[in-house]
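Form P-L/3: holo structure prediction, ligand flavin-adenine dinucleotide.
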Amino acid sequence: MKEDYSEVKVLDKGVVKLLDYMGSDHDIAEAARVSYKGEKLVSKDRSLIRYLVRNGHSSPLEMAELKFYIKCPIFVARQWIRHRCGNYNEKSLRYTTLTYDDFYLPDVGDINYQSEINNQGRGGVIPSEYAMGIQEDMNSWMEDSVSEYLKYCEYGVARELSRIVLPLSTYTEFVFKMDLKNLLHFLKLRMDSHAQYEIRVYANAIAGIVKELFPITYEAFEDYVLGSYTLSRMEIDVLRNLLSDMDLCIDEFVEESGMSKREISAFKELLTSKLNIKLEN
Ligand SMILES: Cc1cc2nc3c(=O)[nH]c(=O)nc-3n(C[C@H](O)[C@H](O)[C@H](O)COP(=O)(O)OP(=O)(O)OC[C@H]3O[C@@H](n4cnc5c(N)ncnc54)[C@H](O)[C@@H]3O)c2cc1C
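OUTPUT (holo model):
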């Protein structure tokens, strides 16, 4: 593994550090092969893993695990720990005292308006002359909170109470372990454009590490999960009405697509039987 993949800096003071991992693409394929142990079914690791990911046979992916040290703002950690199928141990401000500037301050270019079309997300970028003022203002509020907190600590107020004046932007630290199946699910949700930018950068850093350690599985994840869409029954009805009874020649395109023979045949079957498309040979 390349050294620079093991620790990635994110945001202004955040960290994703790979602490440990178990397994490889080959181990995942070997776990799957137990299913037909004793039978003379030969398959290469890559085609077997692609088959598993494509068809949702996910238990062999649970045989691989990754453990990380994460340093992120509390509001990112709040989103992160919603992923229940991981293991966590977080730094406690009941035991420790925060250092003065341990909070996240967004870059001027990351300070946006509220989106008008997406209730949970950001819209256009606020012009830098205004964003700079907002950033300064945020910084001063956070500094005030932290100095208030430190004042209580110095006065001897219990750490567990002093901390309640700290902002959500305060950095926290935790150790996080997850099997590869659930980690890919985490990545699918948190690399998505609907996820908040600040957690997305962490997910992207983890994705880079997973890609390095499990290249075949990650490639299958990109092809069959990240790059795929689910169509609703109504959307399929629209396509069926649009495309039915058309004569299409798709051979040239499917050959260039990188699909295996088995995938091409399943795709053609889908087009003809589900969408009523006539395929020219
Ligand atoms: C863009 C975005 C916006 C979000 N907004 C909100 C929000 O506004 N409010 C909010 O509260 N949350 C929100 N969430 C969190 C979201 O609802 C999930 O809690 C979070 O993404 C964890 O997903 P998960 O349950 O699939 O993952 P995990 O908890 O890691 O679980 C992985 C999978 O295991 C299975 N599983 C785990 N536990 C159970 C169980 N108890 N019962 C049945 N199956 C289980 C499920 O198949 C699940 O998909 C948001 C998430 C995203 C990505």
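COMMENT: Strands lie at 7-10, 14-22, 65-73, 86-90, 112-114, 122-125, 171-179, 247-248, 278-279.
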